[in-house]
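Sat 14:20. Reprocessing the chain from the morning session after the first attempt stalled halfway. Input below, unchanged.
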Amino acid sequence: MSPTSREILMQQFKTTNYIGLAMIGCFFLYAGLVMWINHGLIPVKIPQTLPGDTATIIKYILLFVSILHYFIIKFFQKVAGKAANRLPAGAIITFALSEAVGIYGLVLFLLSGNANDFFIFMAISLFYFYIFYPKYADWERLLVQEAKANKSRK
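Finished this time. Tokens:
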């Protein structure tokens, strides 16, 4: 593996890492907004548009969809993990799917006014970020494997 390809990989990883950290940081902004709205510091009137039973049904549907995100992320990581040039795209898709789970909670909070719903989905989302966050060693290992495979073909 050439030093140039290692530098390119490191730059791609750093850029992807910054995007992931920014997306994680958004959750803490969302959490602050939820707390401020919930405690009345931001004067937003959340209409109770959903009856309690409907909100509960929607919550369980979104929890099920959130569990599906786990398998979708695994699929995209498997597809992206076959070629080093697809790693950044796979990581961004992983971040987006992980972030979507937290957005479900934010939307549910805005519909029902229950802050606990947001924090449940936020915890699931942060858990997905934790277990699926890319590691540079994995990216480098794949690049080395590709370099060896290309040498053996020549």
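The two ends are 15 Å apart (CA to CA).
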